[in-house]
Amino acid sequence: MSDDLRISIDDLRRRMKAGEEFAFLDVRNPTAWAESDVMLPNARRVPLDEFESHLYEIPKNKQIVAYCT
């Protein structure tokens, strides 16, 4: 995977502090999601195997950050 498609947490924080807006997608599988006590507030849950059926939920006016375990 190309590095330009990845963002470090530090870079993300810096860009958010600078006013950039992001939409967060939690793409963990249902088991990983259910077993975790870490949930990012305002993140949309979009399991990868259901990604296409959730396309309408993903904002078109923000950069997207997807995360998983």
Summarize the structure.
This protein is an alpha/beta fold and 69 residues long.
Jot down its keywords.
69 residues; alpha/beta; 2 helices; 3-stranded parallel sheet; 22% helix
Can you describe this structure?
The chain is of the alpha/beta class and 69 residues long. It has a domain of 48 residues. It contains two helices and three strands; from the N terminus they run H-E-H-E-E. The protein has a three-stranded parallel beta sheet with strand order 2-1-3, with no helix packed on it. Strand 1, helix 2 and strand 2 form a beta-alpha-beta unit. The chain is globular. The two termini are 16 Å apart. The model has no long low-confidence stretch (mean pLDDT 88).
Portion in strands = 15-25%
Tally of helical segments: 2
| Element order: H for helix, E for strand | HEHEE
Mean pLDDT: 88
Largest sheet: 3 strands, parallel
Based on DSSP secondary structure assignment, what is the total number of beta strands? 3
* Order of neighbouring strands in the sheet with most strands: 2-1-3
Q: Which structural class best describes the helix and strand composition?
A: alpha/beta
Roughly how many Å apart are the termini?
Answer: 16 Å
Task: Give the uncertain stretches in residue-range form.
Answer: none
Oligomer: single chain
Q: What would the principal axes of the Cα set say about the shape?
A: globular
Work out the helicity level. Answer: 10-25%
